[in-house]
Amino acid sequence: MTDIRDQAYLSGEDVKQLNFIKASRQYVFRKYYRSGLRSHIFEVLLAGDVEKETQGVIRDGIRVFPKAVPIKMFRIFRSRFDSKDEIFFEIKRYKTLLDHLGPAFIARSEEFITDYRGTGTTRILLCGLQEYIHGEILDPWRLSGRENLTALLSSMPHSNDMDSRLQTAVTSVRDFVRGIRELITTTGYIPDLAGVGNLIITPGGGIKLVDINNIVEIKKDHTVHLDDKGYPACDVSIQVLSILETKLLNKNLSRTDPLFKLFLHPERLETVKAIEREFYKTLGTD
Ligand SMILES: Nc1ncnc2c1ncn2[C@@H]1O[C@H](COP(=O)(O)OP(=O)(O)O)[C@@H](O)[C@H]1O
Ligand SMILES: [Mg+2]
After folding, report:
1. Is the dihedral of CA 263, 264, 267, 271 positive or negative?
2. pTM of the model
3. What angle do CA 41, 174, 231 make, to 5 degrees?
4. 31: β partners
5. CA 243 to centroid of chain Cα atoms
6. Measuring from atom 17 of ligand 1, which residue has the nearest CA?
7. Which residues, including other chains, have CB under 8 Å from residue 120's CB and lie 6 or more apart?
8. pLDDT band at 36, cuts 50/70/90?
9. Contact predicate 225/236, CB 8 Å
10. What pLDDT is attached to residue 145?
């Protein structure tokens, strides 16, 4: 991927002045329409595809405008880092995630560090060139059962029949959950499973975690810990784990699992809900 990094031509307000990407006629960086709190996300597109999208192509005598599909996603982590050690620590956390979940369940990223000199001062940035995951967002908070997986899958065309795709999806969720549990047991960390768009279901029934930069420590005490943005990421991610198990895998471990006994205690759930409400209020999206 070094060639993209070295030759990329930039478009879009925010990246016009990124000093670390060289001009190229081959690639276009376009701000992605979905974006999160922690990362700036850009699609890396082939210039030829963007041209077809905007100028159109004639097919069977009709001009159509095929949507350009990203060949990569380019992420810039918004956090400020004061030292390279802090960044290496962050990258190590991503590597831990990759080791435990494996490439089948996370969107792989080539992480790199760069100097940004756009604002008069030099800043160290953590960036990633990540595989683009085509699919639908799996919103855990709207899950009532496997019928939601069927609905998501049927909105995406695929050559396999629905029964086998659904079976694949259930197996993927099961293996994904197993990986998350193994990560928790061996490292004491959990990734943010709750953020909007963090989990994607692919047309064939795969599940992928695309948000790889927010991994939090599970502190097993009676305090609801907040991440650097003021979000109870650990608590809500454990809630999502339980939702996936209960709604999609038909397992209910909330009374027996020590982790769930602590984190899904009704009083604690209330506290977390109140914190979340405040969080969204300050964001102005509630
Ligand atoms: N590799 C990817 N492929 C497809 N969609 C992605 C990819 N990375 C991010 N997205 C989408 O972009 C949005 C923001 O990404 P996310 O990684 O969650 O950012 P943040 O770290 O700011 O929360 C989400 O809706 C997510 O689905
Ligand atoms: Mg996110």
Report:
1. positive
2. 0.90
3. 45
4. 42
5. 18
6. 211
7. none
8. confident
9. no
10. 96
